[in-house]
Amino acid sequence: MKPDAPATRRNRDAILTVLKTEFVDATSVLEIGSGTGQHAVYFGGAMPNLEWQTSDRSENHEGISLWLADKKLSNVKPPLTLDVTTTNRVSASYDAIFSANTAHIMSFSAVKKMFRLIGETLQAHGVFCLYGPFNVGGKFTSKSNEEFNQMLKRQNPEMGIRDLETLNELALENGLIVGNRYAMPANNMIVIWRQGARG
Ligand SMILES: C[S@@+](CC[C@H](N)C(=O)[O-])C[C@H]1O[C@@H](n2cnc3c(N)ncnc32)[C@H](O)[C@@H]1O
Prior knowledge:
The chain is an alpha/beta fold. It has a single domain, classed as Vaccinia Virus protein VP39 (Rossmann fold, 3-Layer(aba) Sandwich). Helix content is about 35%, strand content about 30%. A hairpin with a 3-residue loop joins strand 8 and strand 9. Helix 1 (about 5-20) packs parallel to helix 2 (about 40-45) and helix 4 packs across helix 6 (about 165-175). The longest helix is centred in the first third of the chain and has 17 residues, at about 5-20. It binds S-adenosylmethionine (SAM). S-adenosylmethionine (SAM) binds near residues 34 and 39. S-adenosylmethionine binds near residues 32 and 39.
């Protein structure tokens, strides 16, 4: 049976509206941490001109493949095995990268590695779009995010909502420029970074 993450149905339209703007010039998207694959088939179906490359740790591949087999979208590609802690290089390069709800699930050292990989993988002027909850100015943006963070920490102390300013520093260290920021429903955000001109 296909896996189901109900949150993807709640957040997908708000995310899609932003992707249609931010990915307007993109042709090839790498998704990091595709999870169930539901975002991939929804966004890939709504933007058929984009080639959407799914990826995740291998434990999620079966579920992603079930969604891909069900929707049969020629532009949404079977998952690459991509664990940011062990994947140092992706063989293709992309003009867009998308990731949702990953930075607070990964350890901070994995987040650092994700930004390094993105810096190496994105083409010049390519765009990285990260969706999820973030702290601003070192503070939670809502009580519910604070409670969510406590729940994450009980599960695994290495998880946690990241500070936007810290992510901006990681982005800059890896050649990315800070872009737009969008408020999303349920105290989430989309944050955009752009690859600079590559030498
Ligand atoms: C909360 S789920 C989000 C899934 C999906 N993007 C969504 O929004 O429904 C977190 C995802 O991050 C992935 N993830 C966690 N650690 C990872 C790592 N080190 N490298 C790549 N993906 C990772 C998980 O496998 C999972 O798919």
